[in-house]
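Take a specimen:
=====
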Amino acid sequence: MENKLNQLALEQYSTEYSDLLVKKIFENRESISGKEILTEIVPKQVGLFVLFNLFKRWKVEMNQVKSPFFNYQVGEVKQKLEELMNLLSQNISISKEHFYPLLRVSVESTLVLILSPLKYYQELVASYDGEAPNMDEVNDLRKFIKINSHMRDALLSAWASNYSGEVLFNKAFEGLTEPPEDVSKLMDSFNKQLPVEVDSFWLEGESADLDDTIDDDEQEEAEFETIHTQFSEDKKEMLADSLGFDTDQATLKSMITINQKFMFVNDLFEGNSEDFNKVIAFLDTCETQDVILKFINNNYILRGNWNPDSPQVKDFLVLIDKKFS
C-alpha cells in the first residue's frame, strides 16, 4: 500500500499555524529582526528555514547582478559583496507583509522534514537540478537543517560523492542504524501552539518514510527473503485480535501491550526503553512490511543482536505481520 502525505492538510495547518504565530509576533512591533527570528519562532527549525530562504533569495539576487560596465567577478569585488552579505545578515528587518509567506513555507518544510525526511530530501536534491552541492552549499545545509542531522550528513556525504537518482538515497541511507528522531517529540512545539493529530497529515491516516528506496545486493535479498518467509509462515493469534484492533490502521505502538513492551525492552533492547521507543516510532513510519523486515534483518538479525528463533523476536515479527495483514 502506497502512503502519501496529505498536501492539503499540510497547507491548511501551515497556514493556520503561521496566522497564529504572526499575530503574536507582530502584536507590538512593525518588523522582526534576524535574531528575533531565531529566538521567538518555534520550533527553532522553522526560524532556521526562514533565514535559509532569505539566504537563498539573496544569493539568487547577487547572481543576477551583471553589468556591461563593471566586473563583479573580480576577487576583491566578490570579497566586498560577501562582507556586505554578512553585514546585511546582522541587520535583517522584515515587515509582517513580507514575513508571512516566508514563515508559511518554512512551517510546511519543517513538517515535511519531521514527517517524511525522504520526501524532504528528494525535493531538496531535485531543487539542485542534478548538480551536487559545493562545499559552501554543504556547509549552508548543515547550518540550516538541524532535525535528523545524522540523515542530513549521510545524504550530503553520498551526494558529494556524485551519486544521483535512487542510487544516491540507497548509498546515503542503507548503512544507517539510527532511526529518525521521535516524531511525537519533534511535534511538541507545534502542538503547544496549535494542537494537531499527526495522522491527519497522511492520506488514509497512514504514515511513511525513508527506507523504501533501499535496494540491497543479491546476497542480502536472498537472506532477507529467507527471513521474510520464515516469519510470515510463523503466525499465531495475538492479543491485538482479541481487543479488536483494526490492524490496517493501528500503529505498532498502539498494538504493543504493556507486558510485551517490558519483554521487548528487556530482551531485545537490553533494557533501553529510549532505543525501543525510537525504533518503534521509526517502524511506524515505514510504508511496507518488506521495508521493516529489511531494517530488522540488516540491523539486528545479521549483526547477531537478535536470535530469529527466540520467542521474543517471533512475537515482535508477528506484530509487524498483523500490522500489514
